[in-house]
């Protein structure tokens, strides 16, 4: 994504998103255009205002105040006692006028032109439990009221009340008792007006809270979902959890919906949740910034901030000592300043989306400061940090979209480069493969030329063979030759491994065995000489091969055989399977290995099968090998068939066993059947 695209997206954000938010924000803060009325000596006059125009009145100023009085006690002696005057909003402990623990009475009279219809009253935060009397009638009891402070309990609800208007004067009386709150008394002005106007404020507050709650929950779950799609992005998880925490904050602040839904929910616990929803802001925001701006954030301060925040938060919630909260506010202030500095670095280094993120952060930080001032009673207003956080979410959404588009454009560019690199590397690889194939074909031709023999024919032997390499070139070699009249030698070797490595070993075998195989010495001595020559030249290479030599001695009517680590071979005579096996290590393992020859009688109709281990080591789809047991069973079952038919059926059976899987090794199979012969005929 180029700079023009970023500017276009930023212009859209500024022209569409920001105006919508500020319209929503302005209506939230002052939905009906409240008129501020200042009471003097406990009296508010509306004589010059038309009450029927659905206007809202904010009741501020001097209220009548009677310390240590109950409502009925006041009624009994109202003509004999004089009131104190106290400011609303405010606390009766201001300037140490009265002790915090005790009971008191607030009274305000509202004079007006003739009023008809129904009036409305909205009461905001009022620490302590109280009873509210409107025009001499008990209209509401907040919490559990008792003239004995120890037996009272407060409620955090902020009631909206409708009551019949008196024609010329309406009286509002609060009967309050306080035990623990440090600043008892109304913290914000009351709203008074027609029932319709006050109810509209209540409904608007609920609507805005519902919208805010829904947006925060949706964005929280959305970002958590993003994290589970891409777990490396921890920032999405943190931001999602933070959104859910802010949505929870709506339930325990301002209208205290949690208490509405669960009236018996402990007020003390709800207060702790209210405070906790603010105390988690600094550490969580620090974690979020450390994730989104990793290059600009100094991670050395991350864990100290988290630990100190956790310690101070826990200590304040347990002890409720105000100085601890003040210290925490100072820590939060320094965190906010540092996070602004991190954003400054991000903007200076032109990080993607940093400017939009900075704008959202400044607005959110401003609303948090506003809430702090409201909580500390320095200003009298509703909490608006969740609105600032909504704006922060909008900026965050823009930040993520810019970041995502930038990442997508980068990914597309990298993909294009990667495709080009892949094509280049593929071309180079294909050229290398063509060269390798050419070399392999040449090696295959050389190997075939070296191993090529005239087709073996002998009057006393019927012979079939098949050799299937694992790849273009293999590691199995065999040779069948008549070394002198009436004496046929069969030589089979199986190099370890397969492919090029095994093929090189076969060339070494041919080089070292060609002249020795023509010797009339017994098979064991032939293997011993091959082993000595091979190990003397190639012993340091650790390249081995197994071998089996079998001689048909038609002169004496015998067979002689010897094995160098080769598997058991088979002789079938008169329906019985006879194993052909001797001891001896593979060629190349030990330079002075002694091999042993075994001799046996030879009869017409004898069948001898010589093969490499690749024949029975083939694997099926379940990883099970064909095995020597299946091979022995097959050879016995096919003893009446011709050698050629036996060969074809065996390879078909093995191919069927593999179920289309590639061969695991080179496979060589030789079959001999002895015809009628005369001893000593040669």
From TrEMBL:
<dbReference type="InterPro" id="IPR036457">
    <property type="entry name" value="PPM-type-like_dom_sf"/>
</dbReference>
<keyword id="KW-1133">Transmembrane helix</keyword>
<protein>
    <recommendedName>
        <fullName>PPM-type phosphatase domain-containing protein</fullName>
    </recommendedName>
</protein>
<dbReference type="Pfam" id="PF07695">
    <property type="entry name" value="7TMR-DISM_7TM"/>
</dbReference>
<keyword id="KW-0472">Membrane</keyword>
<feature type="transmembrane region" description="Helical">
    <location>
        <begin position="301"/>
        <end position="319"/>
    </location>
</feature>
<feature type="domain" description="PPM-type phosphatase">
    <location>
        <begin position="458"/>
        <end position="674"/>
    </location>
</feature>
<feature type="transmembrane region" description="Helical">
    <location>
        <begin position="271"/>
        <end position="289"/>
    </location>
</feature>
<feature type="transmembrane region" description="Helical">
    <location>
        <begin position="210"/>
        <end position="228"/>
    </location>
</feature>
<feature type="transmembrane region" description="Helical">
    <location>
        <begin position="325"/>
        <end position="344"/>
    </location>
</feature>
<dbReference type="GO" id="GO:0016791">
    <property type="term" value="F:phosphatase activity"/>
</dbReference>
<keyword id="KW-0812">Transmembrane</keyword>
<keyword id="KW-0378">Hydrolase</keyword>
<dbReference type="InterPro" id="IPR001932">
    <property type="entry name" value="PPM-type_phosphatase-like_dom"/>
</dbReference>
<dbReference type="Pfam" id="PF07228">
    <property type="entry name" value="SpoIIE"/>
</dbReference>
<dbReference type="InterPro" id="IPR052016">
    <property type="entry name" value="Bact_Sigma-Reg"/>
</dbReference>
<dbReference type="InterPro" id="IPR011623">
    <property type="entry name" value="7TMR_DISM_rcpt_extracell_dom1"/>
</dbReference>
<feature type="transmembrane region" description="Helical">
    <location>
        <begin position="356"/>
        <end position="376"/>
    </location>
</feature>
<feature type="transmembrane region" description="Helical">
    <location>
        <begin position="235"/>
        <end position="251"/>
    </location>
</feature>
């Amino acid at each position: 994504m180029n700079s023009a695209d970023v500017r276009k997206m930023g212009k859209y954000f500024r022209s569409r998103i920001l105006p919508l938010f500020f319209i929503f924000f302005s209506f939230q803060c002052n939905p009906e255009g409240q008129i501020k009325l200042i009471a003097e000596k406990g009296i508010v006059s509306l004589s010059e205002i038309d009450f029927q125009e659905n206007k809202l009145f904010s009741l501020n100023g001097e209220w009548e105040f009677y310390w240590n009085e109950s409502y009925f006690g006041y009624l009994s002696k109202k003509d004999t006692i004089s009131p104190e005057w106290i400011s609303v909003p405010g606390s009766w402990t201001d300037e140490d006028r009265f002790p915090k623990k005790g009971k008191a009475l607030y009274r305000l009279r509202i004079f007006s032109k003739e009023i008809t219809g129904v009036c409305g009253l909205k009461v905001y935060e009022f620490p302590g439990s109280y009873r509210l009397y409107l025009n001499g009638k008990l209209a509401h009891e907040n919490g559990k009221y008792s003239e004995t402070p120890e037996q009272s309990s407060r409620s955090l609800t902020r009631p909206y009340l409708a009551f019949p208007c008196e024609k010329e004067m309406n009286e509002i009386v609060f009967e309050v008792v306080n035990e623990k709150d440090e600043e008892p008394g109304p913290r914000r002005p009351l709203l008074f007006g027609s029932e319709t106007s006050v109810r509209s404020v209540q409904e608007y507050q609920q609507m805005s809270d519902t919208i805010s709650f829904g947006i925060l929950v949706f964005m929280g779950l959305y970002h958590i979902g993003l994290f589970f799609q891409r777990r490396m992005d921890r920032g999405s998880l943190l931001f999602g959890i933070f959104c859910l925490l802010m949505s929870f904050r709506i339930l325990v602040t301002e209208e205290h919906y949690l208490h509405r839904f669960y009236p018996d929910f402990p007020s003390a616990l709800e207060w702790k949740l209210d405070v906790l929803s603010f105390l988690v802001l600094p550490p969580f925001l620090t974690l979020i910034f450390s994730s989104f701006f990793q290059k600009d954030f100094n991670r050395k301060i991350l864990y100290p901030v988290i630990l100190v925040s956790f310690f101070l938060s826990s200590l304040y919630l347990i002890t409720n000592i105000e100085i601890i909260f003040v210290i925490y506010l100072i820590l939060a202030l320094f965190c906010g300043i540092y996070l602004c500095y991190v954003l400054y670095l991000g903007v200076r280094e032109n990080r993607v989306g940093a400017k939009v993120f900075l704008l959202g952060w400044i607005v959110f930080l401003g609303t948090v400061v506003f809430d702090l001032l409201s909580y500390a009673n320095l200003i009298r207003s509703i909490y608006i940090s969740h609105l600032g956080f909504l704006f922060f979410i909008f900026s965050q959404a823009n930040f993520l979209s810019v970041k995502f588009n930038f990442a997508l454009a980068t990914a597309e560019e990298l993909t294009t480069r990667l495709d080009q690199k892949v094509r280049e590397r593929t071309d180079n690889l294909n050229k290398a493969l063509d060269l390798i194939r050419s070399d392999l074909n040449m090696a295959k031709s050389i190997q075939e030329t070296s191993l090529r023999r005239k087709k073996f024919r002998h009057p006393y032997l019927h012979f079939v063979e098949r050799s299937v390499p694992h790849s273009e070139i293999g590691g199995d070699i065999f040779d069948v030759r008549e070394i002198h009249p009436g004496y046929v030698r069969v030589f089979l070797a199986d190099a370890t491994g397969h492919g090029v490595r095994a093929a090189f070993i076969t060339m070494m075998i041919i080089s070292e065995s060609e002249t020795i195989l023509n010797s009339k010495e017994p098979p064991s001595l032939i293997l011993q000489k091959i082993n000595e020559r091979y190990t003397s030249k190639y012993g340091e290479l650790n390249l081995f091969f197994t071998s089996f030599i079998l001689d048909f001695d038609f002169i004496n009517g015998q067979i002689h055989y010897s094995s160098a680590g080769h598997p058991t071979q088979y002789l079938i005579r008169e329906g019985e399977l006879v194993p052909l096996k001797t001891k001896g290590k593979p060629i190349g393992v030990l330079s002075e290995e002694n091999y042993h020859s075994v001799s046996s009688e030879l009869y017409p109709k004898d069948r001898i099968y010589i093969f490499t281990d690749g024949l029975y080591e083939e694997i099926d789809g379940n990883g099970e090998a064909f095995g020597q047991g299946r091979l022995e069973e097959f050879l016995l079952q096919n003893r009446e068939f011709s050698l050629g038919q036996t060969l074809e059926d065996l390879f078909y059976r093995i191919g069927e066993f593999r179920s289309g899987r590639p061969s695991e090794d080179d496979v060589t199979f030789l079959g001999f059947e002895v015809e009628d012969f005369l001893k000593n005929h040669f």
